[in-house]
Design goal:
- The structure holds 2 protein chains of 2 kinds.
- By secondary structure, chain A is of the alpha+beta class.
- Chain A is built from 3 helices and 7 strands.
- Chain A has helices at residues 3-21, 126-137, 142-145; strands at residues 25-34, 44-56, 61-71, 74-85, 91-96, 108-112, 119-120.
- The longest helix of chain A is centred in the first third of the chain and has 19 residues, at 3-21.
- Chain A is globular and about 45 Å long.
- Chain A starts with a helix and ends in an 11-residue tail after the last helix.
- Chain B is mainly α.
- Chain B has one domain (15-70).
- Chain B is globular and about 40 Å long.
- Classes of the chains: A alpha+beta, B mainly alpha.
- The interface between A and B is large, with 47 and 33 residues.
- β1 (25-34) of chain A pairs parallel with β1 (6-12) of chain B.
Chain lengths: 156, 71
């Protein structure tokens, strides 16, 4: 196996372990791997945690999907989807997806509350997503307290 | 903050798991994975929330199913 891909898998494991130790993630943290034809075996593949998802201490969930390939000794996230959803249905989802309509569906995009539209977004990774979730929804500071617990009622 | 315990459950996906996940999407959206893939290539899957995952699973299925046939 490519040492770089093996190291990346270790990195993912370490990240999830860190958030488990902090008490933010809890229970089984299911991580699944698979190869795909388009990537030489052991140079990458799919990393997935979905059905069951990662579970947070308040019952929120994160569905994780990454398609990863080592290129020039670096990890590249070819596609990804990070879908965070709170128990009341509020969600956001950051994705990198191949597209032909770069205005309506930018390659790097995010969804908030609804599946449409696809808002343009910066590239992210699991580390950024977990940090962002932790600071916004699981910290004890005033900023977090002004987010969690607020209800919304929207019609577009 | 109280940790309630966790453990990392890490392994390779099995063909059965992939098939089950694909069937779940096929039931939810009323089309086969092949039909989804064709629509995805034409950019017609805006309303499939899990399109990234579905496409990846379909790729994984092709590898795992191929390995299964070689056995």
């Amino acid at each position: 196996m490519s040492a770089i891909y093996a190291e990346y898998k270790k990195h993912i494991r370490a990240l999830l372990t860190e958030y488990g130790r902090d008490g933010i993630l809890q229970g089984a943290i299911p991580v699944r791997f698979s190869h795909v034809e388009s990537i030489p075996q052991d140079e990458g593949g799919i990393i997935r945690a979905r059905d069951p998802d990662l579970v947070f201490r308040d019952g929120a969930k994160l569905a994780l999907y990454e398609k990863v390939q080592v290129v020039n000794n670096e990890i590249h996230l070819l596609n990804y989807s990070y879908h965070y959803e709170r128990p009341n249905g509020y969600f956001f989802r950051y994705e990198r997806e191949d597209t032909t309509d770069t205005l309506r569906k930018p390659e790097y995009h995010m969804h908030v509350i609804f599946d449409l539209p696809h808002f343009v977004a910066p590239p992210v990774n699991l580390e950024i997503i977990l940090k962002m979730i932790a600071v916004n929804f699981y910290s004890q500071d005033i900023y977090s307290r002004q987010i969690v617990g607020h209800a919304i009622n929207l019609t577009v | 903050m109280v940790a309630t315990g966790f453990y990392i459950d890490e392994r390779d996906m099995t063909l059965e798991e992939v098939v089950e996940a694909l069937k779940k999407y096929e039931r939810k959206y009323g089309m086969t994975s092949k039909e989804f893939y064709e629509k995805w290539k034409k950019g017609e899957t805006y309303l499939v929330s899990e399109s990234v995952d579905w496409r990846g699973l379909f790729e994984a299925y092709q590898v795992l199913n191929g390995q299964n046939h070689k056995k």
